[in-house]
Amino acid sequence: MKVFFRCIICGEKHELEYSDHDDVYMYDCSCGHNSNLLVQKEKFELLYDMGIICIKKGFYKEAVSDLASSLERFLEYVIRYILIDTGKQYDDISKVWKSVKNQSERQYGAFLYLFFNQFDEIKNINEKQVKFRNSVIHQGTFPTESETKEYAKYVFNYITDILNILDVEIVEGGLKVSKLFKAQKIIYEQNPLHAEYNRHVSFIDIIRKSYKNMDFESIYDTFYQDNTLDVYYG
Ligand SMILES: [Zn+2]
User: Fold this and answer.
1) Domains of the chain (ranges, CATH numbers)
2) Which of 74, 128, 136, 220 has the fewest beta carbons closer than 10 A?
3) Distances (CA, A) of 116 to 113, 160, 161, 209
């Protein structure tokens, strides 16, 4: 996936091919700056942004796929967050994760029990939305714009509701639970004078921070009009 960012020193625009293979990216400016870059967005944020962009471009089937992936990766984020928060080690959690890595139903089960144990709340995913997601992803159904936006709204509300219960900012949580934690160490060890963090706004993040009293539709319209995400994803 391509993302765009600007050098913090001179503002030159750069294109980055973001993948799961790299934690730290190197770039060179034409004016001589070379830096290490760390993308600080969590995967569920990137996927959700992709979903919103697909809706805007009219690719509703692809949007549902991205939004569903965002939800799954968010459950992983919460599982890891709760385990870290209760004293488990990053590497040990990753070892356990290998057993459920390829089975989303197991991950969902782990999430439900961990969350219930920690907060005394049951956070089932709505059965109607699960059926909708499955029909689009497994049966080739082409969803309408309104169905897709309804799904996006549901996923958004589900994620932000839980983030509010965790009472954590995404970056703070991410530094605890994800590869960013390790990458941040690497980036400083490699080149401490040229360490840079890429923390562009994400759909989920901006709403939580700046638009707490606005609903999904209002935020969506705001993003639609000012092309906030386009600046980042091109
Ligand atoms: Zn530069």
Assistant:
1) 2-42+182-233 (no CATH), 43-168 (1.20.120.330)
2) 128
3) 5, 17, 15, 26
